[in-house]
Fold this sequence. Notes:
Layout: H1 4-24, H2 27-43, E1 46-52, H3 68-77, E2 86-91, H4 97-111, E3 115-119, E4 122-123, H5 126-132, E5 136-139, E6 144-145, E7 151-152, E8 155-156, H6 157-173, H7 178-185, H8 192-213, H9 222-233, H10 236-239, E9 246-247, H11 248-254, E10 258-260, H12 265-283, E11 287-293, E12 298-302
Parallel strand pairs: 1-2, 2-3, 3-5, 4-6, 5-10
Antiparallel strand pairs: 1-11, 6-9, 7-8, 11-12
Helix pairs in contact: 2-12, 3-4, 4-5, 6-8, 8-9
Amino acid sequence: MPSWNQVLAEIQQKHADLNKYNQNHSPLDVVRKGYINQLTERTGRNTICYYSSWLQKPGLAKTSITDDDKNAFMAAVHNMDRGKGLDLVLHTPGGDIAATESLVYYLRQMFGNNIRAIIPQIAMSAGTMIACACSSIVMGKQSNIGPIDPQVGGLPAHGVIAEFDRAKDEIRRDPVCAATWQPIIGKYHPTFLQSCEQAIELSKSLVEQWLTTGMFDGEDAADEKAQTVVSGLNNFVETKTHSRHIHMDKARELGLKVVSLEDDDELQDLVLTVHHAYQHTLANSPVLKIVENNLGQAMIINAPQNPSS
């Protein structure tokens, strides 16, 4: 049995280690990491939190999904026991489809289909695509996903095609309308329409494939289920805007496997506490994006400093 002096020395050493840790980490980091650990202890699964500050810092670059995120996820996955699966906590406006495809491929290579998406508040566009690549999606009453209709050059691909078709119909009926439509259609470069069509097809085919091989893997009529989900998420006519919020009940209605966060009070408290910790970090620091795991590893992108400040 250790002596009192040994116990006291151990306590003093741990206190010194804690002080040293706190000196090297902001209180925001300390609190956030502590709650991520509690969430992992509760679920028994690996946890990676992917957070963007597009709500706190609108209009800034690097808040969306890009190929840079692959390096962050590689660092986050390193040293994880992959047999425990992965809970992916998502808060993102979306981003590049090709980068999203590559990220999903990597995560599936690491964890197979044992990936669960947790959406405390918002995962839009390509964030919704990532959620559809998971085995299930945990959402609360406040959570939402969004349409997966792609944007090309900042414009809705479906909208561009619909506008072009309308122009053709009106000009066919009345050639005089060509003078009205010429400056509108003239702003499109020669391959723009084809790029929109290909982006729509890519978004559709990727999510159908991920649903068939993931969420609906091994189920009867998996292909039909996947097509039903995608027809609802990639339907510009029905959703009307790319920023349309699709909440838990609607997501279930579309056919997605959605688990209610409210079904587990302890899990709900932990998930929302982690979420609020990230919101405090994003609102009270120059952070643009964080990819962080339960092992304390994080890759953080900060906003560029204003040279005039």
